[in-house]
Amino acid sequence: MIEIKDIVKTYNENTVPVHALNHVNLRIEEGEFTAVVGPSGCGKTTFLNILGGLDTPTSGNILIDGTNLHDRSSADMITYRRDHIGFVFQDYSLMPVLTAKENVEFIMELQGRPKEERAARSKELLEAVGIGDKGDQFPTKLSGGQQQRVAVARALASKPNLILADEPTANLDSKSTADLLDIMRSLNEKENITFVIATHDQRVMDRAKRVITFEDGKIIDMK
Ligand code: ADP
Ligand code: ADP
């Protein structure tokens, strides 16, 4: 279980403080598929970044199975993130000089996995997201929907328990959005991967098991 305890994030503490997160408390059970919603600037990205260990809170704790996420040294944090958390972003953030397959294999290379294992897993993952035939393509040759599928395959490469997605459907048409949501829901159901998705997209909210609404850095609604 993930326990988010009284998280505060204040930017520009010494000049003009911005309270991006203002005493956020939440529990996230394994296997959730949760949408985090609210107007632009309400703190969604800050929340995901802190939950994913990409940024540190000003105060408060995140306990994952009882261990404080932000107590790790920065080197341990990098390894923890790499091995336990997958990230998916609005702009896909693929490496343009690597093929789809190489983008998926990159994390496994950092993990020191053998070549054969990397190749087998990237093939399996690209097939799982429905683009098994695109492994040798560079990102610029792929549509937005296909690039986001590569990004999901990449996020899965290290076998994470948790995937954090920031506006993953913002640049996708309706068909690609529906397909991506089917893929994510199926991973959630079959592999019990927890998803936390920051979004403005009603289509994502409609498929979420739980919707958490932020306003001005606070949770104002949960359903
Ligand atoms: P094990 O089989 O070793 O118990 P699990 O698959 O149960 O492993 O996962 C344990 C891992 O789950 C921990 O490393 C922790 O990072 C992660 N975890 C704990 N709570 C959650 C959650 N709500 N969502 C995703 N991962 C979680
Ligand atoms: P959302 O993702 O919901 O649009 P953000 O988490 O990006 O919200 O932003 C929350 C608030 O924090 C906003 O007021 C934003 O301007 C501010 N903010 C975000 N990042 C920074 C930063 N690096 N420095 C200063 N203020 C920031």
Structure, explained:
The chain has seven helices and ten strands. It is of the alpha/beta class and 223 residues long.
pLDDT average, as an integer? 95
Major sheet: arrangement of strands: 6-7-8-3-9-10
Strand content: 25-35%
Largest sheet: 6 strands, mixed
How many helices does DSSP assign?
A: 7
Summarize the helix and strand pattern as letters. Answer: EEEHEEHEHHHEHEHEE
Terminal Cα separation, in Å? Answer: 19 Å
Please identify the structural class as seen in this structure: alpha/beta
Query: What is the CA-atom radius of gyration, in angstroms?
Result: 17 Å
Question: Could you list the spans in which at least 5 consecutive residues all have pLDDT below 50?
Answer: none
Number of beta-strand segments: 10
List each distinct ligand once.
Answer: adenosine-5'-diphosphate
Task: Assign an overall shape.
Answer: globular
Proportion in helices:
25-40%
